[in-house]
Amino acid sequence: MKPEEICGKLRGVIAFPVTPFQSDLSLDILGLRENLQKLLAYPVSAVVAAGGTGEMYSLTPEEHREVVKAVVEEVRGRVPVIAGTGFNVRIGAELAQQAARIGVDAILALPPYYPHADEDALAEYYAAIGRATSLGLFVYSRDWVNPGPEWVARLAETIPTLVGWKDGQGDTQRYRQIIERVGKRLYWIGGKGDDCVPAYYGIGIRTYTSSIATIAPKLSIELHETASAGNTEVLGRLMKDYVTPLYAFRARRKGYEVSVMKEMMNLAGLASGPVRPPLPRLRAEEIAELRVMLERWKSYLIA
Question: Is 140 one of the annotated active-site residues of the chain?
């Protein structure tokens, strides 16, 4: 897919599946395929292979290849597949090229390993990944990558394949400033979490990445549709009843944004398994608490 083509296909919910592991922490590719078959029964707009929720940073290059290949084969062109990459310039470029050969439609660049990079050097990191393939590039602004409008504008000017921006900061005031500075040159995605849907959609965004989609894509899609329609009353109820309690749970410990979603999937009978260290596993009493929470979600759980 050419860089200029992909953004027109992204309106709505972008799902980023977990990477299921066996009890010995080896890949569960069959489980990943089964999860995708169920997910794709719902009208998501794209799928991210080996993203943050997919524990990309815990994967070897060979495991990354296996995960991306399985996603591309299961999706079969029905929606765009975006492959995560990162680490450093060389590995980031190699993973992007590997994913391109497999047949993904775009690349999502996560932050590099170094958390205090100079702005010019950080720009070169993204430029190198952008040069690695002819596919459209999305930058995932999260953690220590939190630039201002002028830096984003310069990046857009210097990387021809850069087509979109995924915000992972949740600072919609800053994000609005970036959007106003850069305009339609990039496609803007809400990427902090389902709990930020009201704020993102309030500044005009109409595409977001949903971790809830791993277990309840029907709810993710309803959040998108309700927010797009400006139905604040129904949106507020969905947030209060489902989203806010979940995200409060996820905020208890670092890494729980992945650990909690995988445990929810385990409880719902989906392929998931444990997280890989250094992500923490839930405590027994928390699993019991999560089981109670999941009872409320029954009508939304993936079929």
Answer: yes
